[in-house]
Specification:
four-stranded parallel β-sheet, 13 strands, alpha/beta, about 350 residues, six-stranded parallel β-sheet, 2 domains
Length: about 350
């Protein structure tokens, strides 16, 4: 298994959660699994967890080179490859029989790359992403949503090679926590440019100054944009309204979700929106933009509100409605849990059978 990060660091996201679920399920089915990923501060370069052998080398930028060298030297030792693509692929299809390569695509960024990172990195990533259909023409594509299947088809991947697989990534009970006493919004995720947490911060300011809703915003996660976001909070005079928690362990994060009133996301694109599903499992209605797979993880008007991309006024209005109307908020919160439980129906055994069939090992 190949992924640029694993769950040992504080900046992992949905890609790492899904990779961990697949690795754990394959190991539980009796298979030996090697996860090749980047080095994490304070963690060993080699680690064993049950039947999972973890190898960490390089940074998130250089791990691709180290992984390629490892595959080149050890390709006879592996029966199948599951490659998690975060825009830049590992090019495993150049070294292995393509029928034994499973490429897990979370979403295609395309032109959005230039809004997510600096121009040089965006250009390199865009070229690498554009090469995927040709290099992996006979590989198996794994996606979590109809939206990503459509994206792959639109760039030339044959429909017969795309498998939609639902994976139960969160196990959250329905037990309720006592809600925060004041209106509380929460957002969870890596603090990177494409998540656009600044929009949520500005919206909290609008609610306080123009709508009379003095809400608190809990920002859970870490990342390269944190300093800029803290500066924005100071500039808007919202120090008393905004709390940065940094990375939280799973149990603490779930308690924070359950205590909040509403979950907010302003992400530029989501393949499915795993953090939104986790919030819904905690009976939280979601407010976001109708981008990508979020339209599948959130049922607009039922488990939350999805507004047109760029319409921050409507975004603020929907958030204000949920914070000020308890009846609507609780109804949508109950709907959210029902909807998310449906999305948690797992196809993991289907994926394991696909991998076993391609590898010739059962």
């Amino acid at each position: 298994m190949l992924n640029w990060r694993d769950k040992s660091g504080g900046q992992y996201g949905g890609a790492e959660i899904i990779s961990n679920e697949i690795a754990s399920s394959l190991a539980a089915a009796g298979h030996d699994v090697t996860l090749f990923t980047s080095q994490t501060a304070g963690r060993s370069s080699h680690e064993t967890s049950g039947k999972i052998n973890i190898i960490r080398k390089g940074s998130v930028n250089t791990v691709y080179l180290f992984a390629f060298m490892h595959m080149l030297a050890n390709r006879r030792g592996y029966d199948a490859v599951v490659e998690s693509v975060n825009t830049v692929p590992f090019f495993s299809a150049l070294l292995f029989r393509q029928s034994r390569v499973f490429i897990l695509v979370h979403h295609i960024m395309g032109k959005r790359l230039f809004a997510a990172t600096n121009p040089a990195k965006a250009a390199i990533a865009a070229v690498a992403e554009a090469m995927i259909p040709a290099i992996y023409s006979k590989s198996n594509f794994i996606v979590l949503s109809e939206f990503v299947r459509f994206q792959l088809e639109s760039i030339g991947v044959a429909r017969r090679r795309i498998h939609i697989v639902r994976i139960q990534h969160a196990r959250i009970d329905g037990k309720r926590e006592q809600k925060a006493k004041i209106p509380t919004v929460i957002t969870v995720g890596r603090l990177v440019r494409q998540k656009r947490v600044g929009i949520i911060i500005r919206t909290i300011g609008v609610l306080a100054k123009k709508r009379g809703i003095n809400a608190k915003l809990i920002i859970v996660g870490s990342g390269t944009e944190r300093k800029k976001l803290e500066e924005l909070v100071l500039h808007l005079g919202l120090e008393k309204n905004i709390i940065f928690t940094g990375f939280l362990e799973e149990g603490t994060k779930i308690r924070e979700l359950k205590r909040a009133w509403v979950f907010a996301t302003a992400s530029l694109i989501e393949g499915l929106g795993l953090s939104a599903i986790e919030a819904e499992l905690c009976s939280l209605p979601v407010v976001g933009f109708a981008n990508g797979g979020l339209s599948e993880s959130v049922k607009n008007g039922y488990s939350g509100f999805l507004v047109k991309e760029g319409n921050e006024k409507d975004y603020a209005g929907r958030l204000a409605l949920l914070l000020s109307n308890k009846k609507t908020r609780e109804r949508m919160g109950n709907n959210a849990r029902k909807h998310s439980l449906m999305l948690q129906n797992s196809d993991m055994q289907k994926l394991i059978r696909l991998i076993e069939g391609a590898s010739g090992r059962k």
